[in-house]
User: Which sequence fits this backbone?
């Protein structure tokens, strides 16, 4: 095993060396770093060309210059890595250090959401293979997959930022929109929940009417300018969560688990009132995470109190219910912050922004307003990225689950008389996740590489923008810096994925197959 | 009712009234913030430093400091007598300029401005001073301790000796080797040297005025004593302290002491810079409006910026947009669109010979070579006539800028005070007329001087086409089509890295754009004089070189226009170059905002910050 890892690391260095050498030379002959200065009538241009030539060693031919760069980078082994300077004489290491967190912030949420929703939809459509739902999900997955992100971004900005902000100035929903929104929701839920035609129309009409009534009620209550959940809604949602989580993890027949989860819903109601003064005082992210740990502890103790046998699944169910319910309280707090956020001078009643990471003039004292600002800035890029990356996960999880469902052990499990829920969730779903981990590792590492177009259209300055800037200004050190980080991570991700695969699947052993 | 109860009822009533009043009161006061769009993010706050002279940096530093004068939107230099005066005396080697600061001018921290604050720019501009003070030779490999971009420039070429301060310390007199063109442009600015001294001493907060005056005196002493150690300490501050892109409440406020109208108070790396009004500002024109905060936000993507504008996130947007984007901008009801040309002009050049700056290139033997005399001259003229300039402007530029015209000059641009008078008599008429007429005249010229060339047997002309650019590809296609009618077979060589290849003698002709950095007299001189840095087409005409050299002496705008006319007559007669169009640029401004007057030259949008108002 160790020998295998060492051999792989050796190959990694060879790949990095070869690819960086080729890229360096290709990039060097592709453009002229001082081209722009040649056309300047600025009297200082001649001196600037001399300075830049000296700073970037432009008088050395590229194949040799590569080794000057390599010498700096190899310093990484004795802790003195030197990635050189950009054309603007800024440190490449600092630039990359600033850009990585931006890229992570931008792509992390989108990747996470895409994974969760993608797998959920994929599994739902696999279970209803060749149904109307399956076909329409396949259709939408491919449709979204084929959309160019800059176009999606422009549409999102037009309708979800500019028009939505206009709507917020007078939140009245036109009749046509009411019908469209309600019927779309109804079609979705009816296709997910039902299989026969009669039940479909039944569910459709129920969801349609309730959605329309809900939207109209929210409108009359001016909920769109002053949104909130309130203790009652939080409690009701929490009960729904308790039922749903119990159903999916251990089954509703497990009364102990249900009771334990429902106890957490009651606790949630209590927490709701207890937490408000804490939320309203000076609070930090660390404290909120601390409160989350408290919730986990309480849930674990409660579960232990209820359980007699088979503690593991019970604790898991209770903790999940408790965390999701507690999350609702946080969502409620953000909703309550919404109207004061809108009335800030810097926001000026147009809360959804089209670009950037935060509003520069917003007061930074209030934790909730500050973080809400970050969240609304994340909204559009996250939706755009999620939409286009959803398809991959939907198709992949659908295909894998279908393949697993045809395996002998699933037939055996059914033959044993296990419930359909146990067969799907415990035997099929878990095995579906094994091949998914490999693409997950690659995707999560890909986050660091940034998203060139998304960053550009949303005015984020992450790794993608850095890469783009490096190419367009022929900034070799910067280009190589970005390349070095992303290439190293990509090669490492491959290694990790292989090792993970062998750890998860006992049938495969790393390094055995030569 | 008890007294206490009455009080309580009263308080409750008052609170209710307050609540109602709060609800009824308008949610927002008069707006006093301007949010500007910039394409590329800020890289530092010291624009005197090498590689820091970017648009984003310049805009911020322009607003935080004001000196003896500025350029207006017509490119005319305006004296700022509120700050002080510059008076020239003597001529020849006796030429002197006396810079006098008006009494009572203060920095944003209340420190009075004296002529001692003018000394610093000499340290970062004079090679001789740098060597004498032991800072190093800017031209050698050791370089000066100050990482300044100003060395080896106009100031350094003409200055002689060190400045002298008057006894009241309010004026500084500098001697020069001779009178030089645009001398007013090179006036030193007021540097807050006391702040640099304090930073060098490790101070991290604003100091009392008395301490600041002492610090300025310390610098003055070190300047005249050429105190190497003291100056090197300042150099460290100058080189490193301002190279930041994040500014928070804990950032050293000494970095942002200035005498301009706005002072930097915050910055987020690659995202924004926030400037607040300098309440002590008295160094220039009085504020007309009540703009309290100016924010620069950085968006690379043009579409993103125009959508941000329509979402009310920006107040001013400037960029080179596509025709669709322009149409979208015009539809935004809260915005007015002001079209301005950028200071970039496209032109077609013919090759006369070998680029004298590039001895490695082989000799030019093509049909346009100057050594072939009258025949090559006629071919050059015919070639430039057959560039379908009107068609290019109509098809490629008018969609953006309906008032766009074919350029008639390469020394001045439309909007300049002398453009019209130059174009009237600079010989550009030789190349005007309908394209049909021009083609006919070109054919006549070819028939007379090069009868072997016909439309059926065209002359092959190799031209470099700058790659990765749709507009240039279209330009080439239009030119090729029309050239065929004249008897030229235009062979395009598309190059992505085209700029270093312009001087290559394998090309008979090239087309690209020059950026006109300023309205300075000698601006385009380097393009046409023998040995000029930008003379890549081998122009070697003694008369033209002499004219170009004469541009470095000061003269009135009328005389300058005469010089341009004489030079362009030669250029047009010899068929060296013709201008095609000025690159279009669009400025869109929040409708309620007044006083934004885009200028062609840097600092394009912010030159008149005192005039902005809602």
Assistant:
């Amino acid at each position: 095993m160790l020998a295998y890892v060492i051999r792989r690391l050796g190959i990694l260095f060879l790949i990095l060396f070869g690819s960086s050498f080729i890229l360096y030379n290709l990039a060097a002959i592709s453009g002229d770093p001082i081209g722009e200065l040649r056309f300047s009538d600025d009297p200082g241009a001649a001196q600037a060309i001399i300075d830049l030539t000296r700073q970037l060693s432009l008088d050395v031919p590229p194949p040799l210059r590569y080794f000057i760069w390599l010498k700096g980078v190899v310093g990484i082994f004795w802790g003195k890595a030197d990635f050189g300077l950009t054309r603007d004489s800024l440190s490449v290491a600092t630039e990359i250090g600033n850009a990585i967190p931006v890229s992570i912030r931008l792509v992390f949420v989108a990747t996470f959401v895409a994974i969760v929703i993608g797998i959920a939809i994929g599994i739902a459509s696999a279970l209803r293979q060749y149904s109307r739902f399956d076909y329409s999900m396949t259709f939408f997955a491919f449709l979204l997959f084929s959309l160019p992100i800059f176009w999606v971004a422009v549409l999102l900005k037009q309708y979800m930022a500019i028009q939505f902000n206009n709507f917020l100035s007078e939140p009245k929903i036109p009749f046509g929109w009411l019908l469209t929104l309600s019927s779309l929701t109804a079609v979705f839920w009816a296709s997910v929940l039902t299989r026969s035609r009669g039940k479909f129309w039944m569910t459709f009409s129920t969801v349609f009417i309730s959605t329309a009534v809900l939207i109209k009620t929210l409108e009359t209550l001016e909920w769109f300018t002053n949104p909130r959940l309130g203790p009652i809604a939080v409690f009701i949602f929490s009960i729904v969560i308790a039922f749903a989580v119990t159903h999916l993890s251990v089954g509703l027949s497990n009364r102990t688990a249900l009771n334990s989860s429902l106890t957490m819903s009651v606790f949630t109601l209590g927490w709701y009132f207890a937490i408000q003064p804490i939320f309203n005082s000076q609070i930090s992210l660390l404290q909120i995470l601390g409160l989350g740990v408290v919730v986990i502890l309480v849930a674990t103790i409660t579960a232990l109190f209820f359980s007699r046998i088979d503690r593991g699944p019970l604790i898991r169910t209770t903790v999940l219910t408790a965390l999701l319910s507690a999350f609702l309280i946080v969502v409620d707090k953000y909703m309550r912050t919404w109207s004061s956020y809108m009335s800030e001078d810097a926001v000026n009643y147009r809360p959804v922004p089209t670009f950037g990471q935060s509003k520069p003039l917003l007061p930074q004292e209030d934790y909730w307003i500050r973080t809400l600002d970050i969240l609304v800035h994340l909204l559009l890029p996250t939706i755009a990225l999620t939409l286009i990356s959803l398809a991959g996960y939907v198709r992949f999880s659908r295909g894998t689950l279908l393949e697993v469902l045809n395996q002998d052990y699933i037939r055996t499990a059914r033959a044993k008389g296990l419930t359909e829920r146990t067969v799907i969730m415990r035997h099929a779903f878990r095995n579906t996740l094994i091949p998914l981990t490999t693409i997950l590792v690659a995707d999560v590492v890909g986050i660091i590489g940034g998203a060139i177009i998304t960053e550009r259209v949303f005015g984020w300055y992450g790794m993608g923008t850095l890469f783009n800037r490096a190419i367009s200004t022929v900034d070799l050190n910067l280009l190589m810096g970005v390349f070095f980080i992303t290439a190293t991570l990509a090669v490492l991700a491959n290694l990790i994925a292989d090792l993970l695969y062998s750890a998860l699947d006992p049938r495969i052993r790393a390094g055995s197959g030569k | 009712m008890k007294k206490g109860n009455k009080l309580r009822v009263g308080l409750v009533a008052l609170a209710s009234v307050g609540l109602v009043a709060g609800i009824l009161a308008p949610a927002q006061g008069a707006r006093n913030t301007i949010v500007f769009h910039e394409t590329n993010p800020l890289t530092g706050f010291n624009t005197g430093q090498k590689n820091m002279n970017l648009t984003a940096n310049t805009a911020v530093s322009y607003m935080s400091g004001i000196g003896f004068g500025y350029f207006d939107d017509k490119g005319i230099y305006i004296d700022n007598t509120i700050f002080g005066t510059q008076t020239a005396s003597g001529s020849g080697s006796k030429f002197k300029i006396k810079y006098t600061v008006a009494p009572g001018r203060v920095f944003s921290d209340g420190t009075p401005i004296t002529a001692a604050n003018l000394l610093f720019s000499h340290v970062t501009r004079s090679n001789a001073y740098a060597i004498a003070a032991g800072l190093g030779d800017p031209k050698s490999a050791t370089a000066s301790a100050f990482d300044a971009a100003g060395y080896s420039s106009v100031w350094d070429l003409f200055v002689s000796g060190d400045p002298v301060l008057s006894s009241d310390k309010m004026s500084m007199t500098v001697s020069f080797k001779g009178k030089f063109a645009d001398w007013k442009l090179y006036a030193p600015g007021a540097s807050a040297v006391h702040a640099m001294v304090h930073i060098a001493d490790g101070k991290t907060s604003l100091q009392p005025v008395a301490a600041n005056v002492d610090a300025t005196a310390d610098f003055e002493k070190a300047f005249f004593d050429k105190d190497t150690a003291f100056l090197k300490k300042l150099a460290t501050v100058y080189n490193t302290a301002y190279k930041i892109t994040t500014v928070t409440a804990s950032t050293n406020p000494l970095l942002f002491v200035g005498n301009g109208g706005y002072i930097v108070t915050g910055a987020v790396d690659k995202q924004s810079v926030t400037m607040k009004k300098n309440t002590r500002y008295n160094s220039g024109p009085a504020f007309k409006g009540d703009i309290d905060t100016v924010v620069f936000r950085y968006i690379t993507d043009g579409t993103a910026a125009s959508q941000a504008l329509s979402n009310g996130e920006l107040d001013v947007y400037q960029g080179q947009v596509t025709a669709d984007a322009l149409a979208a901008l015009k539809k935004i009801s809260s915005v007015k669109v002001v079209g301005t040309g950028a200071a970039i002009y496209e032109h077609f050049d013919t090759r006369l010979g070998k680029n004298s700056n590039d001895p490695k290139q082989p000799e030019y033997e093509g049909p346009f070579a100057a050594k072939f005399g009258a025949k090559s001259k006629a071919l050059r003229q015919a070639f430039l006539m057959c560039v379908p300039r009107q068609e290019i402007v109509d098809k490629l530029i008018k969609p953006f800028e309906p008032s766009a015209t074919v350029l008639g000059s390469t020394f001045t641009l439309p909007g300049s005070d002398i453009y019209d008078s130059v174009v009237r008599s600079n010989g550009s008429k030789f190349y005007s007329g309908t394209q049909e007429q021009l083609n006919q005249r070109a054919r006549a010229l070819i028939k007379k001087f090069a009868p072997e060339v016909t439309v059926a047997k065209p002359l092959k002309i190799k031209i470099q086409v700058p790659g990765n650019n749709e507009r240039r590809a279209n330009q080439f296609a239009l030119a090729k089509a029309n050239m065929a009618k004249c008897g030229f077979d235009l062979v395009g060589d598309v190059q992505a890295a085209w700029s270093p290849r312009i001087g290559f003698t394998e090309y008979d002709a090239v087309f690209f754009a020059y950026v006109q950095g300023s309205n300075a007299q000698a601006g385009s001189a380097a393009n046409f004089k023998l040995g000029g840095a930008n003379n890549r087409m081998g122009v070697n005409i003694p008369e033209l070189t002499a004219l170009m050299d004469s541009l470095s002496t000061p003269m009135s705008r009328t005389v300058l226009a005469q010089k341009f006319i004489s030079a362009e007559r030669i250029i047009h007669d010899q068929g060296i170059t013709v201008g095609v169009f000025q690159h279009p640029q669009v400025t869109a401004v929040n409708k309620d905002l007044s006083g934004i007057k885009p200028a062609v030259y840097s600092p394009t949008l912010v030159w008149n910050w005192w005039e902005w108002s809602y």
In short: The CA atoms of residues 114 and 390 of chain A lie 5 Å apart.
